[in-house]
Specification:
By secondary structure, this protein is an all-alpha fold. It has two domains: about 1-65; about 65-100. The chain has helices spanning about 1-15, 20-30, 35-65, 70-90, 95-100. Helix 1 (about 1-15) crosses helix 3. The longest helix has about 30 residues, at about 35-65. The mean pLDDT is about 85.
Length: about 100
C-alpha cells in the first residue's frame, strides 16, 4: 500500500508542475478551442503517467539488480541539495559589485 501512495504522490507532483506542456495547452485552447484543449490534457496526462510508471519500474529494477546504485543516487542527490544550499547563500557577483 505504501508503494501505491508513493507512486500516486509522485504522479500528482508531476501533474501539478507547469512546463512547456502548459504553453502547448494554452496555445491549443486559444487557437482550436476547448475540445482540442481537453484532448491535449488527456494526452499529456497519459504521457506523464507512463513516464512516471516507467521511471519507477526502471529505477526499482536497477536498484534490485545493482543495490549499490541506490547509494550512488542517494549521495548524488544529497550533494546536489548541498550545492543548491551553498549557491542560495552565496551573494550574486553582479549584485555585490553594483552596491559599491
Amino acid at each position: 500500500m505504501d508503494e501505491k501512495l508513493l507512486y500516486l504522490t509522485a504522479l500528482t507532483m508531476i501533474y501539478l508542475m507547469p512546463g512547456p506542456d502548459m504553453i502547448l495547452l494554452l496555445q491549443t485552447g486559444a487557437r482550436q478551442g476547448r475540445r482540442a484543449a481537453l484532448a491535449t490534457v488527456l494526452g499529456l496526462a497519459v504521457a506523464r503517467a507512463c513516464h512516471v510508471t516507467l521511471a519507477a519500474v526502471g529505477l526499482a529494477t536497477l536498484f534490485k539488480v545493482l543495490p549499490w546504485t541506490f547509494e550512488v543516487v542517494k549521495y548524488t542527490g544529497a550533494a546536489y541539495l548541498l550545492w543548491l544550499g551553498v549557491k542560495m547563500f552565496r551573494p550574486v557577483a553582479g549584485a555585490v559589485q553594483g552596491q559599491g
